[in-house]
């Protein structure tokens, strides 16, 4: 999967472009402050070449600090809703200045020496989860990595809900999840988060209004907001991670991924639920189905019957231990004959119109243990109504 590369043209010399050292004086103890002019230079006047994400109110650019640390630069869209975006950025700064964690997109610094507030956030080299799931040019994420990402987001939400002043994210979705090294996930997008005092159960006063794209059926108003709203949104995210479908996609029927996925989960049809770009999860099918069932419990219409994020994180931790990450080896993948027969049965039709880059389509080989395997060429096409494969990378193999 292609990550969000830091532009090599960004020099960190004080005589050239780069974000200069922080100014720590002022009203933000512990949070480094940067001059907007230096941020402006580091992004080459917010040049579109360094733009990595666009949202309704915000843009995210990539830059470097003088110590070679890559960062995300988050600024408001100039326009009619500029001041709404500024209020949201101030809310995000307030939230992130009070919490920090390994699975959060932590605050690195802030630029507030002008009326335009800009945030500097941790960099995630793997890019955005939404792009990784839905961009056809990105290599599909393997099942162990998907479970790992889901577990990390659950741990992040667990920490927010257990904080001294409970934090409700309110905007848990794939575009707010960023992928770091070793498929570690970081949760961002705190513009609309709310902080609650546990003693009085009152929320932060200046939190901007958020019209939730995924509506919790048990959510009435901000006054009744609770952590279980995040649990519901996380359940939607789990289904999106498993299926590769967007949470709401008018090109599918039904458009809401929950309405489409829940009947399949109840019927244990895990193969129909899984991302069609992926190889069917034969060895991991039970783990994927268990993850889908966790998502189904999170989606209970009654918030009181949903699990806590602590329970969800524990279940996903056990699943991630059962399906550990593995190193993908370069070169031709040797498949076990049983798996190859399962693939034929899964797609429901014989290989009649297969095109390969090598003269021999299938070659029987002897593996180190003496067990017979099947080696597949580097490119092929299935004569199947289920899937067309032009490159083994799209099928989950190298």
Automatic annotation (TrEMBL):
One of its GO terms (molecular function) is ATP binding. It comes from the Eukaryota. Gene3D superfamilies: Phosphorylase Kinase, domain 1 (3.30.200.20), Transferase(Phosphotransferase) domain 1 (1.10.510.10). Residues 1-326 form the Protein kinase domain. InterPro entries: Kinase-like_dom_sf, Prot_kinase_dom, Ser-Thr/Tyr_kinase_cat_dom. It holds the Pfam family PK_Tyr_Ser-Thr. Transmembrane segments: none annotated. PANTHER family: PROTEIN KINASE DOMAIN-CONTAINING PROTEIN, SERINE/THREONINE-PROTEIN KINASE-LIKE PROTEIN CCR4. This is Protein kinase domain-containing protein. It comes from Adiantum capillus-veneris (Maidenhair fern).
